[in-house]
Amino acid sequence: MQTSKITRIAVVALVLLFLLLSVISCSTHVHNSGRPNSGKIPPGQAKKMNGDKSAKAYAPGQQKKR
After folding, report:
1. Range from 3-7, 19-23, 31-35, 53-57 carrying the lowest mean pLDDT
2. Across residues 24-41, what is the average pLDDT?
3. pTM value?
4. Residue 8 burial (10 A CB sphere; 0-12, 13-18, 19+)
5. Rounded to an integer, what distance in angstroms lies between the CA atom of residue 26 and that of residue 13?
6. Across the chain, which distance is largest between two alpha carbons, in Å?
7. Residues 6 or more apart from 6 whose CB is under 8 A from it?
8. List of residues 6+ apart from 64 with CB closer than 8 A
């Protein structure tokens, strides 16, 4: 009787350990859309968001060099 009780406890402990390890090992990955500038917005969209009339201030080629 004792061995079956110990075996049952060992099986339950192993199942719980397996579940715990499988939950801990989960990870998420961030995928970009495949475009090289996926994090940047176009100058026209930045202009619209800020309510300006010209997109010149947001264009990379038009920025003043510091």
Report:
1. 31-35
2. 70
3. 0.39
4. exposed
5. 20
6. 84
7. none
8. none
